Each structure stands twice: as structure tokens, then as C-alpha cells.
Amino acid sequence: MSDIIRLLPDAVANQIAAGEVVQRPASVVKELVENAIDAGADDIRVILKNVGKSVIQVIDNGKGMSPADARMAFERHATSKISGANDLFNIRTLGFRGEALPSIASVAEVELKTRREEDELGCSLYIAASEIKKQESVNCPTGSNLCVRNLFFNIPARRKFLKSDQTELRNSISEFLRIALTRPECAFRMENNENVLYDLPAGGLRQRIVNVFGKSIQSKLIDVNCETSLVTIRGFVCNPVHARKAYGEQYFFVNNRFMKHSFFHKAVTEAYSGLIAPDAIPSYFLYFTVDPTLIDVNIHPTKTEIKFQNETDFFQILMSGVKEALGKFNITPPLDFDTEGDVTRSQSHLPTDSGYTPKVGLTPGYTPFNYKAGICVEESGFEYGKGYEPATRSGKAPANWEALFEGLKESETPRQATLPGLAEAAPAVNARNSFLQMKGRYIVTPVHSGLMFIDQKKAHERILFESYLETLSSQKISGQKSLFPETLELPADDFALLGEIREDLEYIGFELGESGKNSYAVYATPPDLSCTHAREVLTRLIEHYKNTEGDIREKMKEHVSLSLAKAAAIDYNTPLSSEEMGEMVDNLFACRYHNHTADGKTIIHILKSEEVHLWFR
Asked: What Cα–Cα distance (Å) separates residue 281 from each residue in 58, 117, 216, 273, 538?
């Protein structure tokens, strides 16, 4: 029997390596820009055609290469970054394994022009499917100009797995920005089909962030500066009001290398505990400087997952550093152990006289059981609708205790819908029930098994959501014009994304017009959505589609319907009459789903009689 183990040809081995290194156009952008950084470039241009499927070109003004080095760079495991195994544990460059260029050249056509400053002429190489087709001397600027054409031309099956142009462009932009945010001292430019997406001049870190994410983020940035013997953490976190419901502006970097780290993300969110909603995600740009021997960057082919020694120590330092930054900017109150007995942090409103004693007004003889017939019990927070009036505090008990329960009697009065979005012809499934409003928040009504509590705002959201969704699904909506259009300034990728879904937005009532660089003016919005809420809704739509594939228009209808419902639903502490509460309950139970909102929040809870009986055992 003949031997069956054999060495693979270099071209096949390179294609296997390319499966890890080159997954899509964004992978090529990442590898080539990192190489430019390692070559000392401070001016880098990324040029895409057909979102990189046809052309990916990276031009830099770095050191360049000699003809021999240029050819060697396309051999597997050829690198200038390391020379021995020990170097793997002291890595300070971005690329080091020597697989990027040979992997790219195995699945594309590559042309390289490069020259060192001391050389009179440069070198030109043309490689296709790992085979060097041509090498010659050329006249070219100092640095490197590497052009990758027809990615996956020799692996058609791989090309079929590429996502939509919109998704592939977003991925390339993401890789580009991850590097641009680590090198504010370098100028970066990115364009697709001759449309400039980013033109970032050299400058400081704050300015780089503003240039990338728009001027609106500038006032939200809070400095973080934490230095210990283990790690130095610098950068910015954002004001809690900037927190969003989707991921987007969360960036960790270690030794100027982007990394993903869920454990450290938890440290940041814990620092924001109590400042943002549990499902909100804070924005941050945090840069770790650590001894390279304390981290391992080679545990994943893309080198974005990094292992730290003693991660718990880094966690505590990071959380403390972010908390301190928030505290310094009066986002969280700092602890002060030198003000024993002082219940307020500021006494500027108090008289300067040291003998001042605060006074509390009291009503002698007051008892909480004094009420006029037919009104609410204030202390419990239950309300019998609008128009109630507390009894004068005379110190006498009410003459008629049964009056406290008049709201539970069967009402013969026909109901009228008085809230927006409630249909007048809704079935009166609760016609024989009485309704109480508790704390301006809950509708309470007796049911067979006990007491039913309904969150009035969430109930109205559910009703409006189904109403809006039905309307948006059946016809094109005419938007309501705004007298003073709202201007929406966006990062370049968000601006491009909004342009791609603009037609779908117009279908549901938005009217947008370009207004300067990377800005849209909102001239009209869907009915019941104010122009001031348009910014929030559009921003949420953009974030949603960055992370979603599928039918854009259908998903947009659901997302906009939810956003409109949240914007138009009644607020808490809105008094409701018994008729209004009854009408809301009727319409809620006429909905297809009535137990939860469209985003999964509970609307109804029943306190069972058995639970109440247990209280009095």
C-alpha cells in the first residue's frame, strides 16, 4: 500500500490560510492598513470599488520595500516583525505572522508598487493565485501602493457567500475606523466608487472621534485617565444620556490594537450602574497600555480577542477609573466622608446666619382618613379618575364609608374614546368593571381570580403599535410637514446607510433632503411623530439595520411602528377618567397580543386572591 500523507502545494496551503485571514473585503482592508501603519506611514488612503469586491487599494507613505523584500513578502511566514519564538510574547506591531499578503495573493489578483526613500526606482509586482506573473522596476513615490482586484476570482463558491454591498461596506468601514481611532496622528482617507466616506486629518484623539462620529458627540465625551503599575487606561466615556439600546460606539484598544472583551465591557457597564437603563449600552473609547508580556494577542486569527493575565485586576482598575471619571464630571455624586451628618451636598441656598434651623410645616389634627365621598385614598395612591378632590382636613371621620367604594359599582354610562389611537367602536369587554388609577401609572380592576394591574403607558403603546403597523402595511403614508426642519448630522457610514433606505423611509411618511456634508434635513415625519422625535427614531433605525439582515421595509414598519407608539403613548401621571380607563382596557384586549409590548415588556399582572388571603393568616 502506497503512502498517503503528502505535502500540499503552496497555492493550496495559501488558500487554506486565506480561509482564516481573508474572509471578506473588510479582512483585506484590515491587513493592508495595518501593514501601512507598521511601515511607519502617517498618510493612508483606502480606495474601494464595488465595496471592495472589484478593487481594494491601499496607498501609504511608509518606508516602502526593496525589490527583494517585496517579493519575499508574498512567501508564507515571511515577516520582519519577529525572529524567534520569544518574540511572540513581546509583540508591539499589528501584523507579525507573515500570512496576510500570501493569503490575499492566493485568492485575488495583486499589484504592488513600492519604493524606499534611498532608492532611485521602485519595484512593481503582479501576482495572481499565488503565482508571480511579472516583476519590474518602475518610477513611483516613496511608500507602497497595493491594489487587490477581483477578490475570490478563483474561488466562486466563496464569493457567493459575501453579503449585500451595504453589509460588506459597513464591515470595511468598521475595520478602517478601528485602526484610524488608534492613530489620530496619522491622516486617513476612505472612498468607495469615488465617493469620499472619510477624510480624517491628523490631530488629537478627541478631534479624531469627533471627525468620525460627528460634532454632536463632542459635548458628551468625558475624559478617563487612570494610571497604575499594572496598566494605564486613557480615553473617553460618554455621558449617560448618550447610551443607546444597540451596540455601536464601544471601543477597547490595547497597545493601539483593537480588541473585543466582554468581561471588560461588563466593568464599564457596572460603572454606569444606576445611571442608565438596564438594557442601555454606554459609549466608550478606552485605550490600555500594558506590558506586552501580560497579554496574548495570538489566540485568534483576526487578533481581536486578547487574553490578559489576572483579568480580574484589570476589571477592577477599569471599573474604578470609569467611575472616577463620571464622578469628576458630576455624573455620579462622589463619596465625602468629611461631612458627617450633612444630608445635602450644597448649602448655597441656606441663609448665611449660622443659627438657621430648617422648618417643616405640620397640620395639627390631620388624619389620612378624611375624604369626601367618591374620591380617592391619597396615601394608597388609588384614584377614581379625574376630578377628585381631597376632603378638608377637619379631623372628622367620613360620614359614609361606603362612598369609598362607589367606584366599584356597575356603570351604566356609555363610554367615549378620548385618547388618541383608541377606537370608539372597541368591544366593551369590561363594561361591568370599575377601574382605579394607582400612582398615575397603573389601571387596577377586579377580575374573577383577583386584581388585575395594567401599566397604562405600556398598554397604550401596544394599542398604538398594532394600529400603526396595520396602517403602514396597507398603504403609503403621507407625512406631516414641519415648519422648522430638524437637521440630522451623521457619521459617513450612517449617512450612506440612510441614503440607501431613504425610499423606504419616504414610504412610511419621512421626507428627507441632503443638507450639507453627511447631514439630512427632516422635512416631514410620519403622523403622530414630532420632528423633535424624528432624530431619535432615525438614529434607532440606523443602529437596528447595522445589525440586521432581511427585508428592510418590513422590519422598518415594525421598528417605526414601535418608535411611533413609544413617542405617542400617554405619559405616566396622566389622569384618566373611568371611561378612558375602560376604553383603554377594551382596546388592549382587542389587540392580537395584549400581555406584552412589541419589545417584550410586561403590560398585565394579576394579583390572585389566594395570594391576598395568605397575607392575613
From this structure: 34, 47, 18, 11, 18
